[in-house]
Every structure is written in structure tokens, then in C-alpha cells.
Design brief:
A hairpin with a 3-residue loop joins β5 and β6. The two termini are about 15 Å apart. This protein has helices at about 1-10, 20-25, 40-50, 80-95, 140-145, 155-165, 170-175, 185-200, and strands at about 35-40, 55-60, 75, 105-110, 115-125, 130-135, 145-150, 205-215, 215-220, 225. The longest helix has 18 residues, at about 80-95. α3 crosses α4 (about 80-95) and α6 (about 155-165) crosses α8. The chain is built from eight helices and ten strands. It folds into two domains: about 35-110, ATP-grasp fold, A domain (Dna Ligase, domain 1), CATH 3.30.1490.20; about 115-225, 2-Layer Sandwich (D-amino Acid Aminotransferase, Chain A, domain 1). It has about 230 residues and is α+β, with helices and mostly antiparallel strands. The strands form two sheets. Strands 5, 6, 7, 8, 9 and 10 form a six-stranded antiparallel sheet that branches. It is globular and about 50 Å long. About 35% of the residues lie in helices and about 30% in strands.
Length: about 230
């Protein structure tokens, strides 16, 4: 944790890469998809072979916050031939959409089994300090704004209330034959983030979006961490 943040501070960066963010979260016990940085196509192919196909590829850049907006994401890449073509497409799209962006490479991660998409996040309130957020993820959080907030630290009762007070709860409980998500796994992740926020006041913002909530648990497939500007 401290090594990753120290490296970012030394480079005068406040935005951690997805690979760095997931490393930090995994060390804190948060369930995230294993994600590796590849600085060449050959390295991406080697990582994919070890992680197992299908994989997801995402551009890694200090200056690109929303990777999808610049065409920097390829999902469901099935084999090495497809991977090499996907890397080329990412390079071409990102170069066209953000010609001034400096890309460090691509991240490689196994495709996770889908579930209900939820979002968990941390923000810093000037008066109250770290605040935890939970809601439906993906595009739902932007369109419906169906979210719950609590001031850190959370107690187990707080986490349970957050999950159950959003209007989208029936989606998590399973509708029209869909399997119900494991609500206890979401609650556990909320409590882990609460401890994380308490232990690391240098975290200015954190977003896990989406987290796939399934009957067998919950896993974050994308992560964003922004550090405070103070050293």
C-alpha cells in the first residue's frame, strides 16, 4: 500500500492506475479481479495465457480517467489472435480520441462472471471526513442516482441499512427469475472500505464501479483511486 502511494507521490501523481488501485485494495482484503499491466502486446499475451481467456483489456494512462469514452476497452477477448487485434484497435482509437494522452500500456484481467452491477465509493467531506456511498452501478448510478450514504466508520448495522434502503433493492433480491445477489457479501465489502478509509486519509476519492454482485459473492472489476494533493 505505502509503496504504491509513495511511488505515485514521487511521480507527482494523484490518480492511481487501475492496476495500482486494485493492488492496494487486494492488500486491504477487498475482492477484486486480478489485473496486470502489460507494456507490450507480447507481454499482454503472456499475461492472458497465465490468467486464462477470455480476458478484458483496458488502456492504462495517467491522463485518461474514463477509458470507455476514448475507446480504450476491449471485453471478452477469446484468444491470442483476438488479443493482438484488440490491442491494435485500442491503440488506434485512443490515439485518435486523445492524441496527447500518454499511455503506459494496457491492463489485462480475466473476464468475471456477470452479476448485478453495483457501485461502492468513498469521498471526503470537508466537515464530516470520509463518506461511504452505495448504489446500483454501471449507467444506473448516473441515470437513477439511487444511492445511499453513510459517514465512516460504519457498523455492521449501517452496512445492512445502506444495502436495503436503495430503491433498486428488488433487483438485488432477484426479479423475474433472476438469481438474488449475496447481500452479506456487499455488506462485508462496505465494511472493508470503511476500515480502508479510516486507515488511509490520503484517499480523496475511491470508486468501485462496477462491482458484480452474485449469489456466490461480490467482486470489483474496475477501480479508481484519487489521492489528496497533499504530500
Amino acid at each position: 500500500m505505502t509503496d504504491v502511494i509513495a511511488a505515485a507521490r514521487a511521480e507527482q501523481r494523484t490518480l492511481l492506475s487501475e492496476v495500482e488501485a486494485k493492488q492496494v485494495l487486494a492488500e486491504a482484503g477487498v475482492n477484486v479481479t486480478e489485473t496486470r499491466l502489460a507494456i507490450s502486446v507480447d507481454e499482454a499475451a503472456a499475461h492472458a495465457a497465465e490468467l486464462g481467456y477470455p480476458v478484458a483489456l483496458k488502456v492504462v494512462s495517467d491522463t485518461i480517467t474514463h477509458k470507455t469514452d476514448v475507446g480504450g476497452v476491449e471485453l471478452g477477448v477469446a484468444d491470442e489472435e483476438s488479443l493482438r487485434a484488440a490491442c491494435q484497435r485500442i491503440h488506434e482509437r485512443v490515439t485518435a480520441a486523445a492524441p496527447d494522452a500518454q499511455a503506459q500500456g494496457v491492463s489485462v484481467q480475466p473476464m468475471a462472471e456477470a452479476g448485478v452491477e453495483v457501485i461502492l465509493g468513498i469521498t471526503q467531506d470537508q466537515q464530516f471526513g470520509p463518506v461511504l456511498m452505495f448504489g446500483l452501478g454501471g449507467v444506473f448510478v448516473e441515470v437513477l442516482k439511487d444511492v445511499a450514504f453513510r459517514i465512516v466508520p460504519l457498523e455492521p448495522r449501517d452496512a445492512a441499512e445502506m444495502v436495503r434502503e436503495i430503491q433498486g433493492l428488488p433487483i438485488l433480491e432477484g426479479v423475474r427469475g433472476q438469481p438474488a445477489a449475496n447481500l452479506e457479501a456487499i455488506e462485508s465489502m462496505l465494511l472493508q472500505l470503511s476500515e480502508f478509509a479510516e486507515a488511509h486519509p490520503e484517499i480523496a476519492e475511491l470508486d468501485l464501479n462496477p462491482v458484480f454482485a452474485r449469489p456466490d459473492g461480490a467482486v470489483a472489476v474496475d477501480a479508481r483511486i484519487l489521492l489528496t494533493s497533499e504530500s
